[in-house]
Amino acid sequence: MFFALALALIAIAGGALVTYLFDEGAPVPARLCSGACIGIAALGLVGFILASFLGFSYLVLILSAIILASPLLVLRDQNRREQVRVDVHDAIRSVRRAILHPSRRTNVYILFYAVFALLLWAVFDRAMIELPDGIYTGVKNNYGDLPFHLSIITRFTEGANFPPEDPTWAGARFTYPFIADFVAACFVRAGATLRQAMLLENFVLAVSLVGLLHRFTLKLTRDWLAGLVAPALLLFSGGLGWWHFLKDSHWTKQGLFGVLFNLQQQYTINDYGYRWGNSLTTLLAPQRGILLGLPLAIVVFTVWWTSLETSEEEKRQEEGKRQKVKGKSKTKQRAHSSSLLPSTFFLLPSAKRMVAAGLIAGLLPLVHAHSFVVVMAVGACVALLMGQKKWREWAAFFVVAGLIAAPQMWWATHGSSVQAESFFGLHFGWDNEKDNFFWFWFKNTGLFIPLIITALLWRESSPDGEKYLVPRRLFFFYLPFTLCFIVPNLVKLAPWVWDNIKVIFYWFIASVPIVSLLLARLLRGRAVLRTTGIVLLLTLTLAGLLDVWAVVSRNAEFRIFDADGVAFAEVVKEKAPPRATVLHAPTFDTPIYLTGRRSVMGYPGHISSHGIKYEDREREIDRIYMGAADAEALMSKYNVEYAVVGPQERNEMSARGTIVNDSFFMRYQLIGEKGEYRLYKITGP
């Protein structure tokens, strides 16, 4: 575990030092948050490239650590070294001052980050639970996702999965963005357990996300209170589901506190037409890719906003360049300008920032593909609306991002089994099946959308006359993000339409600072306005708070693998070689996901959401377990080397009207068993 912690610290430190190349004036905490996300993404990409050529060994981890530590070279520059020294000194002095002479605002900040850090630890600590009788999760929405991510991680650590095949579909290139899981695999290879590896990565990224959203909101609104409200709106997002909680409390004998300490349902996503969910329990904990992609995207958005605000220093630099060429002939002036601008352009702070933003955006395709698409599409719209005077900076962003992303996109799509047509189609209203469109969104997001409109229309008096709460520049910056809401409500962007939330969520992220600014204004007002602000904040977060409370209060645990299944996985790892192909029932909770071995077919829900047509293979697996006349030929077709007969196979086949033919499998060698699980050797020496 020590090596895994060291690897994480090197990645964070290296990423933080990189920020000195483009993020002038950032405080040390912001650099650490940005650096954690940049460093972890770089660890995934660098480690994956090295492992693809050299094998997944300690040598690869050591080489990756050396490369991740290369930003130390920025300290060769005396001025930058002095800047780092001053920043560290100021950070230490600020901590000392906060302890010895705390101010009211300092106390608020300390309490704010302490509470959120403890909360995030409590949630992600429940993502995977190891108990004597098996492996559980305390996050209901993680019930199907956890075994899938475990299969990805173990395919790297146990199955030598280079180049990566789909762990749920043997023989197909893996197109799912896997970098977040490969980073966890790096930590496992460095000595951590599966649970420790995921908890370490998840906690670091989640805390960084809070810090980055806080800073993004501060940059946009210049309001410290809005910066504190924003993470609460994110982590406790939800709709009007709290109303059902109040009804449950009223109609049951348990009462309010009895229901609260024995929550049996989710209040942000359920069968009552609530599909939005809570960001922490529905998206960030179960779907590991977005937990890395989202903070990286926020870093890019922050860089865009900073670059759009041209500093006086840059204006003086540009004026100086014009003075240098003044008085020369037009021909010489053009010649001089053409030779001067390319060499000096990249020295401008705004250019450095946009090149860095391009590099960060370029990391996204194998981290979280939806985030990459959003960043590039929204970036194009922002550039058209606001970037005409900085077209060179925007051109640099798109060129650099494209150069870094293109090889990843080619690799992910080349030779894929994905049916591209399954990703697109007209579909109105996202995942709404029965409600009026407007009522659906009001029910799912509560007063969030009305508050956005209110904030955009809000005028307040100032010494210069009336002005809008949301300045014109911020309004135009926000406008392209509304497409992330409009388009997914008109078009299906994934085989499973609910996955459109991975795009819609970026509209929510961009809207959070605006709603936070309005709430901050109300909370600073007189008693009536302050009370209104508190009530509004409570209505926006109560349903999400209930779902998060259900996790941290340890009300429920959902078992995925029983003790025999966990032990059987060790038997399979002992008896079957790393790249063996194993036949098992197409279900989400097979112990084979803990072994890293190839699966002929995994859970249909995962496979279909990746755009793969699975029905024919599923029917043929049924025929094999029935012991049909062509069963042997079908096993030969899929190169089956080992077959599992266990509780999942019997239950899954029985649910589809099929009975496992034990006599058929008895003709093969039984090489391992644990409880009701049996492993048969089908082919090989």
Question: What is the topology?
Answer:
Blueprint: H1 2-18, H2 28-54, H3 58-68, H4 78-100, H5 104-124, E1 129-131, E2 134-137, H6 145-157, H7 179-189, H8 194-221, H9 224-235, H10 242-251, H11 255-260, H12 279-284, H13 288-308, H14 312-325, H15 330-345, H16 349-362, H17 369-386, H18 391-413, E3 425-426, H19 437-445, H20 448-457, E4 459-462, E5 465-468, H21 472-478, H22 483-486, E6 491-492, H23 501-523, H24 527-552, E7 558-562, H25 563-575, E8 581-583, E9 598-599, H26 604-609, H27 615-626, H28 631-637, E10 642-645, H29 647-655, H30 662-665, E11 669-674, E12 677-681
Parallel strand pairs: 8-9, 8-10
Antiparallel strand pairs: 1-2, 2-7, 3-6, 4-5, 10-12, 11-12
Helix pairs in contact: 1-2, 1-7, 2-3, 2-7, 2-8, 2-13, 5-8, 6-7, 7-8, 8-9, 8-13, 8-23, 9-23, 13-16, 13-17, 16-18, 20-23, 23-24, 27-28
What does this structure look like?
The chain is α+β, with helices and mostly antiparallel strands. The protein has a domain at 560-681. It is 61% helix and 6% strand. The protein contains 30 helices and 12 strands. The strands form 4 sheets. A 5-stranded mixed sheet has the order 9-8-10-12-11. It has a 3-stranded antiparallel sheet with strand order 1-2-7. Strands 3-6 form a two-stranded antiparallel ribbon. A hairpin with a 2-residue loop joins strand 11 and strand 12 (677-681). Helix 2 runs antiparallel to helix 3, helix 13 packs antiparallel against helix 16 (349-362) and helix 16 (349-362) packs parallel to helix 18. 47% of the residues are buried.
